[in-house]
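Late entry, written up from scratch paper. The run itself happened at the end of the previous shift, but nothing got recorded in the book at the time, so transcribing now.
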Amino acid sequence: MSEGSQVAVVFWGGVEYWPVICVSGNFEQWGYSEEDIASGKIRYEQILHPEDLQKVRSFILQRIAEGYNDAVQQYRILDASGNIHWVEEISLFHTEDNDNLSCQAILRDITTEQENLFRRIRLEKLIANIATNFANLPDNRIDEGINKALKLIGEFAGANRSCLFESSEDCRFANKKYEWCAPGMEPFKSFLNKIPMETIPWLYGKLLEDQTVFIPDIDLLPPEAEKEKALIRFFNTSSLIFYPIFSENKLSECILLDYAKEKLLWQEDSIALLQIVGESISGALKRKKAEEKLAFTGFSVERSSTPTFWVNTEGRFIDINDAACTATGYSREELLQMSVHDISSQMISAPPYGSFENAVEHAKKQVALRFEVMFKRKDNSFFPVEINLDHFCFNSEDYLLAFASDITERKRGEETIKEHLHFLETMLDTIPHPVFYKDTEEKYTGCNSIFASSIIGLPREVIVGRTMHELQESIPQHLANIYREHDLALIKQPGTQFYESKVQCADGKLRYYLFSKSTFNDSEGNLAGIIGVMLDITESKETEKKLREYATELEKANEELKSLDRMKDEFIANVNHELRTPLISIIGFSDALNSGLLGEITEDQKKAIDAVLRNAKKLNRLVDSILHMSRLRSSGVHYEMTIFQFSDMLRNIITDLSLQMKQKGITVQEDIPVDLPQINGDRNALERVFINLLENSIKFTHCGGEIKVNIRKEDRYVHVIVSDTGIGIPRNKLAEVFERFYQVDSSSTRTFGGLGIGLHISKNIIEAHGGEIWANSDGKSGTSFHVLLPVNLKI
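Output as recorded:
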């Protein structure tokens, strides 16, 4: 006999107490050694279960008496530890010459087979018991029956707890409705009464697929079940099984068995039991809910002011409330002898069912139906009603509950609305631009004739009630997607929206439109939809394109002008160099002649040389001004800043120009304090400013006139005022005198010379020093120029 086999061989004598002669080694599987048994220390009758000993002996003797030499029987034995095992014995026996009985037997351990057999028998009895119990259970004891069933399946499966969870109507939560606990086990926490499905996504997904979920070991759960693993550990549970129950293709309940003590491999018969119990519980709960609904509905309907009819599937009234009698004019007895066909006329709006028979079939497939029909009163008058039809099953029979609301006033209101809509459509048709309006579902609820004919190319009644995507033959898909994105953004953020877009019109041409869209609300302040107006801007776009092209051409011309300007600057720089070189020589030799370094000169010669020297310096300043202008427009002017005595500079300038003032008989009055603070600035540049101001005063002041130079300190500034009694400047021209090339007298016969750049350069120099310059005049006679310079300015 091979090692590990569950089959053992034994030889024993048939005398009293059945002494064992020898056994195979496999007998040790029951805890007995060969030596113990073969030595007679342990007799076979001691191994047999006491309750089976006489039965086994009697069966063998009966077989011998009947002339057989073999026997097959099943009985119980006790192992060395006292545990019970079932064995199957196949024995051969014979009688020796001395009439002694000897036997050779093969024993096979069938304990597992017997336990499975007993378990199947127990399961069959249990299933029959539960099914019979629910079939005969009164409605008021359904809760008791469910609790009993949970106890039975929990005990059969060896579970510590068995629970029934019910799914909420929206399938977002699971509520613990019933629970059984084995002795010594605590029930689950109360917060399991409302478990969000989002906290058990992996388990919920499996249950929705109608899968029985085994969890023999929570450590073996996949990574996507981390939330479930944490929840199971929280309740100190080791092994679970979930069985889903579906009702009308919807997850309605779930049975849970859990084993808290150790990890467990659930047996298949437990699943079979769960399936049977689940079907029984589901049916019982349906019956309970139907009874509760029937009781509640019967109570509330009878007191309802809405006409209510109980109808069977053939359309016969089986009950009605008082409101139904009042609405139709019939008595209760009369209505109970009638059907829906006797009081209802054509259906006003009932697609896709259209008839009572079709409505019944649709009601069986969904929760409720709503449609409109015309009801006929006893006096043969008609009135419109809205029917809310609900289907339910009671005692395996289908019934319908119909609530009939009189909608006469609503229909009148709808007619009024239709009249208003007609007026609105007529008014919109007078607008020369496409207009449309939609609801929040993006369906067109109206438009004017231009929109229908020019944009969509379909009749208005075809457009209304459809979305852009449903009009894809008229609106290209990519454009419909763009319009939809704008609509969704506006619905998300109500208000007004403007955007431009291409539109493929009904004639197939692409045109540009400016969309103006706004949201509007209903009478209760809720967002109702979008109204849009389309403005054709195709011509504006074409004009805009031409303007862009023109702007490009202008930019090109401007670049050419800049190039010419650069050439001009280069030319001025060259001219400046060519003029400055001989001027330096002229001024230098004139100074030498005037000073007598080259010999004695007469008084007339001196006057001539003074004139040459004066005009040469004037020409030199003009060259400097032109060069300064050029630098302003190109690289900028660099100033050499030094600290110097400002009052000395002004006195020197007045002295240098005194000859010109003397020649015109102009007197000069100075008010230059000796204690003026020093100035930090470019001395040469500032000299140019005040030379320009004084020369302008000399130029525009008549002979015998007067020039005043006043200086005073004001806070952090030195304020210089150069005023004259000259021709003055018109008030409306005072700001323009500082512009480049500006001339007060710009006529071709103007009396006074000049290029009109001196004041412009002066303004740039003063502002570069952080100061201000301005002019005052009454426009008739006299002008005063004001200069503010900061004291000791640091740049």
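The chain has a mean pLDDT of 80.
(Scratch paper discarded after transcription.)
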